[in-house]
Amino acid sequence: MDFDLSEEQQLLKDSLGRLLADHGSFAQRQKHRNEPDGWSRALWALYAELGLLGLPFEEKHGGLGAGPVETMVAMEAFGRALALEPYLATVILAGGLIRHAGSEAQKSALVPKIADGSLILAFAHGERQARYELADIATTAKKDGAGWVLDGEKGVVLHGDSADTLIVSARLSGQRRDRDGIGLFLVDGNASGVTRRPYPTVDGLRAAEITFSSVKLGADAVLGTPGKALPAIERVVDEAIAALAAESVGVMAVMHEATVEYLKTRRQFGTTIGSFQVLQHRAVDMLVALEQARSMAMFATMMVSEENAAERSKAMAAAKVQIGRSGKFVGQQAIQLHGGIGMTNEYSVGHYFKRMTMIDTLFGPAEHHLARLAKTDGLVES
Amino acid sequence: MDLRFTPEEIAFRDEVRAFFKASVPEVVRRKMSESRHLAKEDFVSWQRILHKRGWATPHWPVEWGGTGWSPTQQYLFMDEMQQAPAPPPLQFGVNMLGPVLIAFGNEKQKRHFLPRIANIEDWWCQGFSEPGAGSDLASLRTSAKLDGDHYVVNGQKTWTTLAQYADWIFCLVRTNPEAKKQEGISFLLIDMKSKGVTVRPIVTIDGGREINEVFFDDVRVPVENLVGEENKGWDYAKFLLGNERVGIARVGVSKERIRRIKQLAKMERDGDRPMIEDERFRERIAEVEVALKALEMTQLRVVAAERSRKDKKPDPASSILKIKGSEIQQAVTELALELAGPYAMPAPDEPDEGSNEPPIGPDWADTVAPTYFNWRKISIYGGSNEIQKNIIAKAILGL
Q1: Is-contact B239 B311, C-beta < 8 A?
Q2: Pairs across A and B, CB distance < 8 A
């Protein structure tokens, strides 16, 4: 057991921290939201320069060959800065699918473009009727000569508006919730038959509703084995959950720090409000919640590379429960303890609270994962 | 960062696990598992087995019988002991007084008392709290006045756990009533057989008798029983209270309890299906398991940080362990209460020794409610959770 970062990991943390302090302050973030993509291409280029966009990919494909701990370090920093950029969509989700399901040729072709920042990707998976059930796919892919034809609708596709290429899940055979019969396809975002309806999300990021109507795909559009894509999707969603756990720690830590700082400076009744015991204890409760979440983000980081899918997904479900519970408490109390100022759109804490709330929703909130975990033999083995 | 145990640590864990499996007397293991009160002989016989193996005082310095284990090994040992389940060595001697004597006692005290603590030849109890000095411990009033080569002690201690078995009590006493309240306190060792010492039991809400009042009427204590310097007792007490870090969260205890609840839930039926198939009950268990896993990781973070700490001061994060650990232990007793259902209610008189009367309801259910009530103490003793929050607010948050 060793919880210290290695020298390289510490360097990554420091460099990214400096980069975001210089170019990703809260005021700058609010400007970046108004750029055409809703995020900063300039910042994206700086991420590429730092090596962040190639972080989890193998070196032979043009990546950095880093592991889950590096991803944790990066995501926590993004959480602290409330980063708007499509790191989760491009590197973690779509990039993860390429890592786990892509052919050597696809990896060699795509990874260098991801790493240098020139290729933005999104994972078009969720459908309205599916809620959080990963196997629930109604979008269809039908064989058409050597290629395929894609039909269906995908909802709340993270950064689906600015993605150059979409990775789309579709059903080749079977019933809507069957585990078998699911395939993944690389689809040009501007292909004929692809209609995108872009919008901002409540946390200030971007997403799109995407319709595919008779979209013709070549044979080379297939990612992985047609019909056998679900395990890769589940694995990538587990990786996304571990990443979100780390991001949420950054988000919560800032909310907690801001709250404690406010308690030390805000004066009422002739004294700082931090001298009131009821508020001191609330701030401690927030710290306990934050530290429990931090511990679970580390647990998720440790377990995310576990090959046993059942053990891995149990750990991710547990992490999602903890960050959901902690995030809600820390967020609500951060607003409460700031009082009126916490309610204003101008002040940063509310934006952190909104991101935290959306992190809970992504890939299923705490209650969803608690129910999943309860169906297993649990965390305390008998 | 590597969040796995090393092969050496895993081998160590397996070694202690095998030892506990082979060495905990069955009667002790069963009482622990069924949440029954341990008799004095149970504590004594088990601690002597541990001592024989050289493991009764693992965290003491090697020269005084410690093991020289790393913080991680200490943690693994404690975790395995809690899961066995086996009682820890008697904490009043091993965890509280022992380290104080080692740090502040004189050579004669160390040589005499430490081996007797390790082999539990003296049963120690703790004389800190008083009727008027609970969370505000420094306001204690038990007095010790110097009279030749003796102190004359008068006053009352309370909540004294297992004083009915004790040979000795270590006490905070007021030796200078003129000084500021923290500065007039001394740390005194008192023989319970001394004339003028009276022990009176306090029955707790679970019906148990583990705590007591201890009265001192003109008790004469030789000055050689003073630990360290006169009027420095408050420093030693703070050292003692901050000392118990490893195992304070009792993660292993909660793991063992949850494991047992899951097993019992397979047998206990609700209509035509076992309770373990009740989704809502499973979710309640899962909820506690998540918090426990997070706490286990938090504890490991504290253990790992301890390796690099040079100042030897307690990590303020151990207050988090105390708060969360107590909440989880109490939540586990609620799960057991829910599982027992209506059979949490019967509270029959203790059966006579050797009685063959059958149990009322499931044979495990009679201790469930008493344990639920008894374990409310966990968020009160050792500095209540509210006091822990005061400590964190000041020491970590700077409020």
Answers
A1: no
A2: 138
Partnered with residue B202 across adjacent β-strands are B211
B399 touches chain A (CB under 8 A): yes
Task: Tell me the pairing of strands A267-268 and B124-127.
Answer: unpaired
Strands A121-124 and A165-171: parallel
Residue of A nearest to B258 (CA): A380
d(CA B199, CA A315): 51
Lookup result for tokens 């409610």: B369
Q: What domains lie within chain B, and their CATH numbers?
A: 7-89 (no CATH), 124-231 (2.40.110.10), 245-344+361-395 (1.20.140.10)
- Distance (Å) from the alpha carbon of B396 to chain A's nearest alpha carbon: 9
**Contact by Cβ (8 Å): A243, A88:** yes
User: Check: CATH 3.40.50.150 for A122-228?
Assistant: no
State how far the alpha carbon of A266 is from the alpha carbons of A13, A339, A350, B91, in Å: 32, 10, 18, 44
| Structure tokens belonging to residue A297 | 């983000």
| Whole-number Å distance between alpha carbons of B253 and B378 | 13
Find the Cα–Cα–Cα–Cα dihedral A190, A191, A192, A197, rounded to 10°. -40
Q: Cβ separation of B286 and A378 shorter than 8 Å?
A: yes
Catalytic-role residue among B183, B213, B244, B327: B244
* Helices assigned H by DSSP within chain B: 7-23, 26-33, 40-53, 71-83, 91, 98-104, 107-118, 233-243, 251-267, 279-308, 317-340, 368-374, 385-395
Name the E strands within A160-258: 165-171, 182-188, 194-200, 206-217, 222-223
- Per domain, the residue ranges of chain A are 7-119, 122-228, 231-374
When CB atoms are compared, the residue of A284, A318, A378 closest to B285 is A378
**Subunit contact B291:A281, Cβ cutoff 8 A:** no
Contact B298 A380 (CB under 8 A): no
Walk along chain B (399 residues) and give the pLDDT tens digit of each residue: 887 899 999 999 999 999 999 999 999 999 999 999 999 999 999 999 999 999 999 999 999 999 999 989 999 999 999 999 999 999 999 999 999 999 999 999 999 999 999 999 999 999 999 999 999 999 999 999 999 999 999 999 999 999 999 999 999 999 999 999 999 999 999 999 999 999 999 999 999 999 999 999 999 999 999 999 999 999 999 999 877 665 689 999 999 999 999 999 999 999 999 999 999 999 999 999 999 999 999 999 988 888 777 666 666 677 889 999 999 999 999 999 999 999 999 988 777 777 788 889 999 999 999 999 999 999 999 889 999 999 999 999 999
Domain A7-119 has CATH 1.10.540.10: yes
DSSP state of B94: I
Domain A231-374 part of CATH 1.20.140.10 = yes
